[in-house]
Specification:
The protein is flat. By secondary structure, the chain is an alpha+beta fold. The longest helix is centred in the last third of the chain and has 42 residues, at 691-732. Residues 1-27, 586-595, 616-678, 755-760 and 789-808 have low confidence and may be disordered. The chain has six domains: 16-122, Sandwich (Immunoglobulin-like); 130-232, Immunoglobulin-like; 240-368, Immunoglobulin-like; 375-475, Sandwich (Immunoglobulin-like), CATH 2.60.40; 483-585, Sandwich (Immunoglobulin-like), CATH 2.60.40.60; 638-729 and 774-808, no CATH class. 15% of the residues lie in helices and 33% in strands. The strands form 13 sheets. It has a five-stranded mixed beta sheet with strand order 37-44-43-39-41, with no helix packed on it. Strands 1-7-6-3 form a four-stranded mixed beta sheet, covered by helices on one side. It has a four-stranded mixed beta sheet with strand order 9-16-15-12, with no helix packed on it.
Length: 808
């Protein structure tokens, strides 16, 4: 037993030692190096894994470059452990490849050793710098200052960062066209700049070829891009006046007229900001003129916007200046030093250089004297008149003068606008008087003011008109009596006195209007009174002795001056317990749902009456209809159905159109007193119940009785309706002789084509026998019973063949 225990301990010790030894070997990591893009030949040996083993082992390799991407790059010789390379690797895609090396025992193929292997890829200069774009196109202003940043080009190199292979610089290889006024240069960052002055007239476009060159030790790689620089025309040429067109004359007071058009020329690009002219006027302090640019021709169009007065001068002297929308800029190269920026001479509004002299032109505008309208000394005048003033009352006088010196000075006065037609004016003196009675309460009067427009018209050619406004204040008089605001009143009946408000209005103002005095005219003592009776609203008090009914009261309403009116007030007294007022009580309305309900109820009552008439027209007792059961099993007869050319037999009724006595089956008259609700036992029990219980019981019994009657009516309808339908169908059917002969229609495309053999018509020989059609089964007997003539039906009955028909 002791020896067995020692043996187990020895085995465990050996096993643990092997495990620890194997675990240590698993942690071993080896590394190899190789260059990307190796030219071969392939395969070539990368190295051999040195492994001291007491056993014969086989070698295996897994991981990146073997069975993972990039696949099939490496393989290992299974006996020697030497690693071979089968193809080149791209550094830009894989910088390190990680693999697993395994040594397996040849006896049982268990793993003896596992190693981690790293293969480091060395970069070579196999990638040139690449620009983000193959073509750059930019635009710069002609007035850009030298040393200004134009644009930045960018390139990148995929070789290993920080090595000479990925380091590069920029260079301008060529410029087209080469001009003496501009030189381009580029910095290490790819930023483009220029020296000198752009001149659009010299070169409007430059094409630059820019290269990026790396610093590879073995070989240098490069790429290029094209930069197109468009020079946008700046304003380095001032516009120059070349002439003018137009009469240079304008009539006084005339506006919107253009007496002159000024012409200029500009050497900058057509329709650019540097070419479009912008004009200004000097010497027009009162703002009579404006000048605008014709966008098509660049001309300056002078227009009168405020009428000129001949009396202030027959001529107007103006000075017109012109410049461009873009500010003027001038740049000239003076010298070109070898380093730094060039020496240039710049002139513009911001540089403080020499003063820019914009072109100007003096023009003279002649003012022509024309007929001036008469002028009122006061254009807006006030006047007043009482509204009860008699016709012909003087209101006001207006006065006008004609300022013309050379034309006619005779004029007359006229009414320009008189909304109500109340006024007239003396054509020579300007005196305004009334020709109708004025009314302060008229709709033409606003805030007690009536507006009148008068005119003074001269006899010139054409005649001219001056205008003045007269505000006439109408003084109120007591020419209106108070008006009662209502002529109908509704009062709810109550045990005690009730008060209702009545009100009045007066079109006149204070002191000719309210507050008013209200009085009741007639013998109303002990029935009606007013409390209060003074004010704009009075209280009409109904005494408790006034009962329901319609009453006619006379109400007298007087204003503060005693002017009054008497009005009839119809008063309705009623009980308001049902409706809130007498009108709703006397004139009930129905909603749409109620109207629909009444219509449906009417139709239901009509149907009940019709059924009742039918049921009373029949005898009280009916006999059952004898039926004969068919021999054998009843087969379905729904294979064939009646066609449109078949008559429906009139089985449910007789030939005279009356309902067959045996067609309806019913019981005795329906007795609702024999129902389960209404029986002797239930009635006797009601006497011992409360009033509420008996009321609920009778209500439920009433609903049950209605339901029983509905079922009874439905039964009658289902038994009577099929017979009526059969009668109606028969009345519309025609006899076989009356049916029109069917003639097939030949369509145009049928023509006279040859007969197709497989579509030939079926021919029946003359000696054919039809005996086999005598016995076709119950399905065809059903069809025959529907389509056979009346005589065949009688014959069928003699053979005691009964056909079952479904009701329609």
């Amino acid at each position: 037993m002791l020896l067995f225990t020692l043996l187990i301990l020895v085995v465990q010790t050996v096993t643990c030692s092997e495990v620890h030894s194997r675990q240590k070997r698993d942690w071993i990591i080896d590394s190899y190096e190789m260059e990307e893009g190796h030219p071969g030949p392939f395969p070539y040996s990368l190295g051999k894994v040195d492994l001291n083993s007491k056993y014969q082992v086989f070698f295996d390799l897994h991981g990146e470059g073997v069975d993972k991407e990039p696949k099939d790059v490496f393989f290992i010789e299974k006996n020697s452990g030497e690693i071979f390379v089968k193809k080149a690797v791209d550094y830009e895609k894989h910088k390190v490849l990680k693999l697993t090396f395994e040594a397996k025992k040849s006896l049982d193929f268990t793993v003896d050793t596992r190693l981690g292997i790293e293969i480091i890829i060395h970069d070579i200069n196999d990638n040139p710098p690449v620009f983000e774009k193959s073509l750059y196109e930019i635009t710069v202003d002609e007035d850009a200052s030298q040393g200004s940043h134009i644009h930045t080009v960018l390139a990148y190199d995929e070789d290993k960062s920080g090595t000479p292979n990925s380091t590069f610089h920029y260079a301008i290889k060529s410029v087209s066209p080469e001009t003496s006024n501009v030189e381009f240069f580029i910095k290490e960052t790819g930023a483009l700049y220029f020296k000198g002055c752009f001149d659009h007239e010299v070169a409007s476009r430059y094409t630059l070829l820019v290269e990026a060159i790396d610093h590879g030790e073995v070989v240098r790689l490069s790429s290029s891009t094209t930069v197109i620089v468009n020079v946008e025309d700046g304003n380095n040429h001032l516009p120059v006046f070349t002439g003018q067109t137009g009469s240079g004359k304008v009539k006084e007071r005339e506006t919107g007229f253009s007496p002159l058009r000024l012409h200029v020329t500009d050497e900058d690009v057509f329709q650019s900001k540097a070419w479009r002219a912008r004009y200004s006027i000097q010497g027009d302090e009162e703002g009579h003129f404006k000048i605008e640019t014709d966008t098509k021709t660049n001309d300056g169009v002078l227009t009168v916007v405020k009428g000129l007065d001949f009396k202030k001068g027959a001529k107007r002297e103006l000075k017109i200046f012109v410049k461009n929308e873009a500010e003027f800029f001038s740049c000239k190269v003076k010298s070109r030093p070898s380093t730094g920026l060039w020496n240039v001479d710049i002139t513009n509004d911001q540089s403080g250089g020499g003063e820019i002299r914009y072109n100007a032109k003096e023009v003279v505008i002649e003012v022509l004297d024309v007929n001036d309208p008469p002028e009122f000394d006061v254009t807006v005048k006030e006047a007043s008149v009482k509204e009860d003033a008699p016709i012909g009352t003087w209101v006001e006088k207006v006065t006008a003068v004609d300022p013309d010196n050379t034309t006619s000075r005779d004029f007359i006065y006229k009414i320009g606008h008189d909304p109500a037609g109340w006024m007239k004016i003396d054509a020579q003196t300007g005196n305004i008087t009334t020709k109708k009675l004025v009314d302060r309460e008229s709709s033409h009067v606003v805030n007690n003011i009536y507006t009148l427009i008068v005119q003074a018209v001269d006899n010139g050619k054409p005649p001219m008109t001056g205008t003045a406004t007269l505000h006439i204040h109408l003084i109120d008089v007591n020419d209106n009596v108070p008006q009662l605001d209502m002529n109908n009143l509704e009062i709810c009946l109550s045990d005690g006195p009730t008060t209702s408000n009545i009100s009045a209005t007066d079109l006149d103002e204070t002191p000719y209007g309210g507050p008013f005095t209200f009085e009741l005219v007639g013998d109303v003592r002990g029935k009606w009174k007013l409390d209060p009776s003074y004010g704009f609203t009075a209280g009409l008090v109904r005494d408790s002795r006034v009962y329901a009914g319609v009453y006619s009261l006379k109400v007298k309403v007087s204003d503060m001056q005693g002017q009054y009116g008497v009005y009839r007030l119809t008063t309705t007294v009623c009980s308001c317990s049902v409706a809130r007022n007498c009108r709703n009580r006397s004139a009930p309305t129905f909603n749409a749902g109620g109207a629909v309900g009444i219509a449906l109820l009417s139709l239901l009552l009509f149907a009940v009456a019709l059924l009742a008439a039918i049921s009373f027209s029949c005898k009280e007792n009916f006999t059952d209809m004898d039926t004969v059961s068919p021999v054998g099993n009843i087969q379905d007869s729904n294979i064939e159905n009646p066609g449109t050319d078949c008559k429906v037999p009139n089985n449910p009724s007789t030939s005279d159109g009356q309902t067959n006595k045996n067609s309806l089956k019913t019981e005795k008259k329906w007795d609702w007193t024999k129902t389960e609700y209404f029986n002797d036992t239930n009635v006797s029990l009601l006497h011992n119940q409360s009033e509420d219980y008996r009321r609920k019981y009778y209500w439920n019994w009433s609903k049950y009785r209605k339901w029983e009657f509905y079922k009874y009516r439905q039964q009658l309808l289902e038994e009577w309706m099929p017979s009526q339908i059969h009668l109606k169908v028969r009345s519309f059917q025609e006899t076989e002789e009356d049916l029109p002969e069917y003639k097939p229609h030949i369509y145009a495309e049928e023509g006279d084509a040859d007969i197709v053999s497989d579509l030939d018509s079926i021919t029946i020989p003359d000696n054919a026998s039809f005996d086999e059609l005598e016995d076709l089964g119950l399905e065809f007997q059903e069809l025959a019973s529907i389509c056979m003539s009346a005589q065949m039906q009688i014959k069928s009955k003699n053979t005691k063949t009964i056909y079952m028909h479904h009701g329609i």
